[in-house]
Every structure is written in C-alpha cells, then in structure tokens.
Amino acid sequence: MDNHIGREDSVLLAHAGTSASDLWVNKYAPKRFTDLVSSISINKTVLQWVKQWDYCAFGRKPSTTMPSAAGALNPADKILMLTGPPGLGKTSLAHIIARQAGYEPYEINASDDRTGTTIQDRLRTVLESHSITGPKRPSLVIIDEIDGAYGGGGDRNFIDQLVTLAETPLPSPDEGQRAAAGKRRRRAPLLRPIICICNDQYASVLKPLRHVAKIVVMEPVTSQPLLLRLKEICMREALSVENRALLYLAEATNYDLRASINTLQMLSTMTRRIDMKSIERQLMNGKDVNRPVFHVWSLLFQRPNARRSKQNQVDLFRRYTHRLVKAIQANADYERIMDGCFENYPRVRYHDHAMKKPVVIAQWFDAFERLHRSAVTASHNTELYAYLAYPAVAIHPLFAGSIHQPIVYPKTMYTAAAKQRSHEQLLSHWRNQLPIGTRRLFTLYHTRVELVPFLLRIISPEIKSINVQLIKPYERPRVHRVVSLMVSHGLFYTQERQEDGQFYYRLEP
Asked: Does residue 206 share a domain with residue 68?
C-alpha cells in the first residue's frame, strides 16, 4: 500500500506533518497545479489569463500564442471573476495559479472588510509594492466574497475603483519611457492581476464590474477525480469505505468536495469502516449538504429489498408507499422533489416497450403542477397541501429498480430558474430607468411581452453595416430614429472580444 500511495507527486504526502486534529479540508488541500480536481480547461483558462501579466509584473513579453490584447503586453480584460456555488475550490484555484505563475497571493475578504475605504487602502498597498511577507515576488490580489461586500446597502466606492483601474490603459514600452522622462500619468494603471471570487455573478453590486472583467464560471467537480481524491484520503486515514458509498456521498453533496471531506472526517471519529448506512445517517444530520432530498429520491427510485413470501407483497407495497408519503411530507420541498424526479426518470433503467410509463408519469407531473399552482401560487388552498406528495409517489411503481439507481441533482431546472431570476431582475431594473410616461403605459408583465420584443425589432432596421459617411440619404433618418429610441430607453452597445480575438457588439443592459 505504501508503494501505491507513496508517489512523489501525491498531494496527500505533502501534508504528512499536519496535526491529527486539523480539518481534512486544510490537511489535504491541493498545493500544486497538478493537484487540482477542477476542470482542466478552467484551470488552463485562469493560468493563461494570469500569464498575460508577465510583461507588467516581470518585464517578460508574453508568448505570441497568448490570447492577449493588441501589442501582447496585457490581457484584454484587466480583472478576472471566478464565480460558482460554494465548495468548488475557487479560492484554492486562485492561490495555486498565483504561485504557479510566480506570484505571491494576497487575499482580501470583501465580506469581512465592510468599509470601502479599508479595502481600498489594503488594495493600494499591495498593488504599489511587492509581496508584503515572504519572498520578493509581485503580488496577485485575490478578493474573496466580493458579491457580499455591500450586500447591506453600503457605498460602492471600492467597486468603482476596481472599474477605474480596469479601464486605465497599460503603457507600451515606448510610452513608459516617455512618461518616465516627462510628466507622470494622472491615473496610475493596473500593473498586477486581480482575481475576484463570488458565488453570484449577477449580484447588483457587481453589475459595473461584469462589463470590465473576464468571467470564468466554475463547474461542479466531475465524479472521477472527486472519487479518486476521496479514495486517497481514505487510504491515508486508514478508513475502509465502499466505492458505492463514496459515489453515493458525492452525489448527495452535489459533488461538493468540501462537504464530502467534512462528512468523511466526521464519520471517522465514530467508526473506521464506513458503509452506505453510516453515510445516510450522517447526511440526514448534515447542514451543508442536500441529503434529505437525495434520501427521498433514493427511496422513490429504489425498491425495498423484500425477502418475503408472495402473499405479503401487497402489504409490503402498502407499507412502503406510506413510508414514501411520510418521507416526502417530512422534507416538504415538493417542487424540488418533482424537479429531481423529472430529471432522473429518463436516466434510470426500466422495461416499457410500449412507452406507456412516460405517458402516465407525464399526467402525474401535470397533476402536480395544477395542485401546486392552486395550493401555493394562485389560490393558496392550504387543504391541497396534503395531496402534493402523491404525484411523486407515483414514480416508485413505474420506475423503481431493484439495483442501485444513480441519482443526479436537477441542474437543468436549477439553471433555468437561475437564468429566469436574473432576467427578471434585469428587466425590472431596466424598466425602473425608463421615462415615467413609458413606465405608466407598461407594467412589468406587459414590458416583457409587449414592449421588449417590438422594441428590439424597431432598433434593428435592415441597414448594412458600413461607414457612417457611406449611409444613403434616405437611411439617415432611420438611423437617427434608432439612436433616439435607444437613448430614451437607456439602451447602448458595448464592444467585447471573443475567445478567437474577434470583436462583437452586445446590447446592454
């Protein structure tokens, strides 16, 4: 075993000197670029962006293959924003990338430092000097939880300062020499990379920053690297864990590495042999995992291991159905349970050559939508709450199997709901900025279905994209009309760069 895990490149051996009382998430935290379990493409994207600062930080011109701005002296986007749900390793990724590229990471937690002046002072100190402690290497600033900096309604001076820094152009070598010989620049440019970390990129305080930052969305860790990391931790801690139990733990935590490691450490204090039942019991008491709803889904898609006579099958099914109803009602998140059923029933194995089961379950989904709309959304008929559990119970006799059915979290529905919320917030914010006369004519609903579709068509006339001097005389009034409409409705175009270097115009907001 020692030969198997005693490899030089093992991330776990780098922490052999840590105390037994340390948290495992810190004890087995990645230390090198190759230790990361996040997506390789995301890791490379962040590293390439940081390497584009080589000229400003080290005086080295970036490689000609780097997708940097004109002149290959700096990145097109001066700030990088890492966004994604908690537990994906965003902060660890930023620290490791910084060291891999030769920087000393300097972290600022925007949620802890509530005043913009405090953060500005710390930021200015770091950007105008090398590393405060340790080797004399340039600093890479990591601003964590930036979406929570002013959640309470504080000022936005800090965000405005970041935007100002990002919009200040970097000098070329010739411009730098002329500036050194002559007058100093009025506004100091940003000469060090800044990585901002947030959970919600659509937070209202981050709206100005989104226009000047390169946004990288962290994806959940895939099952294979997550399971390998958990297995290696179990080997180092002398834990005996079933592979099926680790897979179940990963799925129950929605592939949250931090929550999975914390669960294993908690179980290790009670037993050295971990199985499915022990993980189920621990997850039922957990606070940072969505275990209760996974427990319900497992009950719905898994048949009970009944070693009984045929005469008892009816009674067994009746008792198990009663157990399902109680489990669903105890969870009480009916909408999420149905979303999970909708996401997973096409994935499970079942026999139905005539395709009758999907038709039947579609009717149950429709019945749930009607019940939920009457009980919660529209009429608030609380008497119907008692019936909301039964459409989900219908999944069991149709799609439950005797073998373990892999359950996934309903990401499709969550993603669609998140996009809908962000679009509604954007629409509401845009409507509030319209002239008072327009706002009085259109409610939020009518703005969405009557104003926006036709307005987009009106401001997109069939005019060729040519030089303004070559526009035909009869087309000029149409252009002026479009410009006037866009100004009065707060619409404008912003120029952005694609990954291949091509520019395009995006309509804002």
From this structure: yes
